[in-house]
Each structure stands twice: as C-alpha cells, then as structure tokens.
C-alpha cells in the first residue's frame, strides 16, 4: 500500500472535440511531468455541447471515438494510470452513454464506467437539464484494481447517492473518483459538502476533477477540482481556471480513518414499519 501522487486536471471544454483533446493532452503531460502517477480529467472531457442534440451530433461510438487512441497512447507513453472522466459515447441513434475510461500504464482500458444517475432538473436560476433525454444511464458500479488498492468510479451527479459509495467501500475501495461538470449554482451550494461527506462517511479519498468557468456555449461550471482525504480534509483544490491540482495519496490513511470510526463494520439491516 505505497503512497502515490494523484492529479486532477481541470478543463474548460467546448464543442470542438479535437481542440478539447489537445487541451486535455497538454495538461495530462504537465501533470505527469509534475510527478503524478494517477491522473484524472473531468466529466465531458472532450465535449461540452450546448444541448443534448448537439452532443449527440458530435459523438462517436466507442470504436470510432478519436479521443480513445490518443489517451491510450498517452497513458502508455507517460506510464501513468489515466482516468478520462467521461466521454459521450454514442450507443444508439438517439442516446449516448456518459462513460469514464480508466487506462492502465500499458495503454489498455482497465475499467469502463457508465454514469448510473442522470441529472434531470429545473433550477430556480432558469437553467434546465434533461440528461435522460439523450443519455442512457448505466446499470453497474465499477471497481478498479490498481497497484495501490481498489478505486471506485463515479461521475458527477452520482455523488448525491451515498449508497453507491458505501457499496464500493464495502467491496474494498479506499478511494473514489468523481469527475464532474457541476453548475455554478449547485457547485457553490453543495460541491465541497458532498465530496467531504462521501469521504468522511466511508473513510476514503475523493479524487474529483472538474470543469470550470464560462464555456464557449454560454454554460458556466463551478470548477474547484478537489482531492479530499479520508478524514474529510481538503488536500488539493482548484479555482475556476484550467490547471492541475495534485496531492500525495497514502492508502494507509484510509485504514486509519476506518479504524477510528469503523462505521463500515457497523452497518445493519433494518425495516421501516
């Protein structure tokens, strides 16, 4: 259970897929140069479209997505574990999957995770989101086996559903990834609280790279990429500008936190009469 350096890559992606790939590659290389062995990018790494229809029009099925060979080559070239927070992968004529890809240092996909919980909401600010109109939700939680232990995968809105993380923790996850593109409104209110809560209640690290700032399509995301320790302490944090934000991860701290507060062992079944 050796220590390692993890980095969040914060982006401000637009609707130019190839331009976004180039931006992500530049920051990933910078993170590796800085010593990161585990590098994570945000949700919608290569495409922040103005609406679901535009996203569908600019998406590819997995065998034709231009980003995947680039990121596979980067992981292999840099000899890093590389989590691409999510790509819009076309799965039918009307829908995409919001899918994370974790590449191992040999350039192969170690784990794929399709976002389970979809964001459908009308916000008081007037912003409206209907992810389920054009996105097919996943049905499986995913764990990755890494040299440092098991890491559980999630995406953005998933962080509002504690049971997902609890089940992953019970199956051995000492850390979770939560690549996101939180709105500015919900980010200000909930981002830090939710990530720290998931870390504390499971005695686990949270690695949460984010989109940040005003995007070309007019959408504004919260940014503030975070790495949170298992005692709830913020180890690294971004602002709203693109960049890399890194911290040392010691898996033994997860063991220590779970020893101090052994809530994973104290879960009980119960009924509501």
What structural keywords apply?
29% strand; six-stranded mixed sheet; alpha/beta; 273 residues
3D architecture notes:
This protein has 273 residues and is α/β, with parallel strands linked by helices. The chain is built from eight helices and 16 strands. It starts with a strand and ends in a 7-residue tail after the last helix.
Summarize the structure.
With 273 residues, the chain is α/β, with parallel strands linked by helices. The protein has helices at 17-33, 52-57, 67-78, 131-134, 162-170, 184-202, 251-260, 263-266; strands at 4-10, 38-40, 81-90, 96-103, 109-114, 120-122, 128-130, 143-146, 149-153, 173-177, 205-208, 212-214, 220-222, 226-228, 234-237, 243-249.
- Give the SSE string: EHEHHEEEEEHEEHEHEEEEEEHH
**Uncertain stretches of 5 or more adjacent residues:** none
Shape: globular
> Could you give a short account of the major beta sheet?
6 strands, mixed
Strand content: 25-35%
Give the class from helix and strand content and strand pairing: alpha/beta
Strand order of the largest sheet: 5-4-3-2-1-16
Global mean pLDDT? 95
Helix content: 25-40%
